[in-house]
Amino acid sequence: MADTRPSASIEAVESGLAAQGYIASRQIATAVYLAQQIEKPILVEGPAGVGKTELAKAIAAWRGMKMIRLQCYEGLDEAKALYEWKYAKQLLYTQILKDKLGEVLGGAPTLEAALNQLHDFGDVFFSKEFVEPRPLLQALEQPAGCVLLVDEIDKSDAEFESLLLEILSDFQVTIPELGTVVAVSPPTVILTSNSERDLGDALKRRCLHLHIGFPEQKLEERIVESRVPGISQTLRRQMVSFIHEVRTLDLKKLPSVSETIDWARVLVLLQAPELGHEMVKDTLNVLLKYEADIEATMPQVSTFIAKASRQNVFG
Amino acid sequence: MRENLHRFFRAARGAGVRLSPAESIDAMRAVSKVGFTDRAILRDTFLLTLAKTQDEKKALGDCFDLFFDQPEPQSPPEDGKADEQDAKGSNAGSDSPGETSGGDEQAEGLGQLAQMLLAQDRNQISAAIANAASAASLSDIRYFTQRGIFSGRILDQMGIQRLRDDLDNLAATNPALAERLTNALDGLRGTVRDTVSQALMLYGREEAENLRNEILRNAPLSRIEPRQVEQMRHLIRQIARRLRERYSKPRKRQRRGHLDVRRTIRRNAAWGGVPFLTAWKRRHRDKPKIVALCDVSGSVARVSDFFLLLIHSLHEVVDDVRSFAFSGHLIDVSDILESKSPEEAMAEIMSKVGFGSSDYGSSLADFEDEWMGAITPQTTVIVLGDARSNNLDPRADILRRIAERSKRLVWLNPEGRMAWGWGDSEMLRYSTFCTVVRQCATAKQLERAVSDIVASYQ
C-alpha cells in the first residue's frame, strides 16, 4: 500500500473544498476522504453556524454533483421524506379507465375467472409511474450520484431515524409494493445535528462521527480571508481574536463562524481600518443575538480590544 | 500490526468508548485506506470511526496518545540479543573507563539481568520489560489490586530470582557492586511499577469503573463520602438515561393500534359497508403524573438530593412532575429544579428549606392548603422521607386524603425496616395509607422504585 497516497488525497480534499470557499480543518478533510473511501455517511455535530450545512454544499460544488436536501422537523414521516403514492393520479386513472373494465372482464365466464383477470391488472396502480419520489428516493435515483444532506436530524422523531438506517448502511430502500430500490451510484450522505436530542446508537454506528467546533484562530482567519476578500490583515486578525475572547464568556449563544463572517462584512462595509471601541459597540448586535449577551459583553469590550491589538503586534 | 489494532480497541473499550465489532471493522477498513505512517491522520481516523460523542472523542484521543506512546513491545528475542551485544560494546567505549572495567570484571559470573542493569542501557532494559510484560500477558490486567501480581510476574520473567542469588553472592565478595546493583534493582522495580500502572490505565478502566459503580450502587446514599458525590451524580444520571431509554420508546410507538373492525363497519354503514373511513383502536394510556414530596431535613438530605436529581433527569418520560421539598415547612421546587443546573438547584433548595428538623405534620398541612389541587386520580404521589417527625403531630389524616385523591401513594424510606415505628418514627402510622412502602437507601433501590413507578403507566 502506497504510504504517501492517502495524505496526499486528504490534501486534495482540502484544496478542493478550499476552491469552493470552504476552509476545512484537517479532521474535516479526513472525514470527507474516508467517507468516499469506505462509503459511509458522515454525521456532523456541533454548535449552530460552524458550517455543517456549508460542508455538504461545498462537497457538492467541488465534485460537481447535485445536492439534495432533506430538512428534518418534528413529525417528518415516510410520505414526506421517502415517497408518496400519487393518489389523485390513481383516482383519475381509475375514473378514466372505468369503461375499459368491461373489456378486461368481458370474456370471463365466472366470477372467479373475472377476479383472476383483475389480479393480473391489480399491480398497475402501484407501479413506478404512480410513485412521487421525495428527497431520499430522489437521491438514490440520481444516475450521476449526488450529495444527500439530511439537515438537523435531531429535530426529527426517533422513529424517523430507523427509516434512514437502510439507506445509510446499504444505500437502498424497500418500498413494499415495488420491492427494493438500490442506488444507481451511492450518494455522499451528510447528516447534521445540533445535539438537541440524543441520536440512536444504530444511526451513529452507521456513520463517521465528525464534530465541528469553533475553529482555531488561524483557521478562522483563513475562513474570513476566503469569504470576505476585501478585509485587511490587521483588522482580520484583530476581529478574530476579539471573537475568540467573546467565546470565553458565559453567553446564551456564542458567536459562530457565520456571525464572524457577517461581522467582517459589516466592518468592511463601514470601512473600519481597525477595531475601535465605538465601532465595536455599534456593531455588536451583528455578533450577538440576545440583548442579555450584549449587555454581558459590553463592559469587557475595551479589554478585549486591547488584548486583540496586543496579540496583533506579537502574533 | 493487526494485533496492535486489536489491543488498541481493547484499550479504547477500557477508556469507556463503547465499541461494537462493526465499528472496529469499519475502523480497520478506514485504517487500511489511510495507512499507519501519519500518526495525526491515524488519530483522526480513529476519532471519526470509533467515537460517537464528544466525550468519547476526548477519552479516545487520550487513550490513543497513551497507547502509542508506549514502547513497542514487538522486539523479537533474537533482536534483543543482538541489541544486547551492541549495547555492551558501545557502553564499554562510552562509560568512564575505571568504572566500566571494574563492573565488567565483576559482571563475568553474573546473570543476564544483573549484567543488563549494570550496563545501564535504558533502551535495552525497556525492551526487556516490554517483552516480559507481553510474556506475562500484562494486557489482561483489570483491577488495581492486580498490580502487585503483575509486577511480580514481570520481574520473574526478567529473571529476578537469578539476580537475588547474584546479590547474595556479591554481598560477600564485592559490597560496592552489590550496592550498585541494589540501587539499579530499585530503579527497575519503579519502572516496572509504572509500566503496570500505565497498563492498568489502558486496559483496566472499564472493569474498575464497573466494579466501583457496582459498589456505589449498593452503598447507602446517606453515607456517601464527599469525594464520591460527583461519581454518584454521574451514576444517577446514567440510571436516569437507562430508564428513559427503556420507557420512552413504547409510549411513542403505540400511538395507533390495529384496525378497529367493529367501529369501521359502523362508521361506514351509510355507504353500504364500503370502508371509506377507517377507525383505529387506540390504546388508552394514562399520562404519567408525579408529585414528589421530599424530606430534605438533615438526616435524609443527601438521599433526597439524589432522588430529586433522578426525577428531574427523567423529564423526557414523565411530562408532568411537580416536586416539593420540606423539612419544617414545604415549598414548591419544580421551577428551581428545571431552570437551574442540578448542583445550583440543590444548593438553593437546601438553603431555602434544607437541614432543618423535620415537621411532617405542618409540611403536609402546607401541601394541603396550597397544592392539593395538583393531585388528580392519575397522579402518583411519592413521598421520600424517614417519617421522623420529632414527636410532633404527624397529621396522618392529610396523608389519607392525599391517598384517596391520587392513583397511588408510594413512600420511599431511606431507613431500614427494623427502625420503622421506633423512637419518633411515624412510619407505621403513615404506611396504612400508602399503596407501596419501600426501603430506599441505595442507588439500586432508588432505580427499582422509580422504574416500577414509570412502568405502571406503560
Automatic annotation (TrEMBL), chain A:
CDD domains in alphabetical order: AAA
- SUPFAM superfamilies in the cross-refs: P-loop containing nucleoside triphosphate hydrolases (SSF52540)
Q: Which InterPro entries match?
A: AAA+_ATPase, ATPase_dyneun-rel_AAA, CbbQ/NirQ/NorQ/GpvN, P-loop_NTPase
> Which residues belong to any copy of the AAA+ ATPase domain?
38-216
Q: What is this protein called?
A: ATPase
Report the source organism: Bradyrhizobium icense
Q: Which GO terms describe its molecular function?
A: ATP binding; ATP hydrolysis activity
Automatic annotation (TrEMBL), chain B:
Q: Name one Pfam family in it.
A: VWA_CoxE
Bias (Basic and acidic residues) occurs at 78-87
- Tree of life domain: Bacteria
Instruction: Name the segments for region: Disordered.
Output: 66-106
InterPro entries attached here? Answer: UCP010256 (IPR011195), Uncharacterised_CoxE (IPR008912), vWFA_dom_sf (IPR036465)
Name the chain's protein. VWA containing CoxE family protein
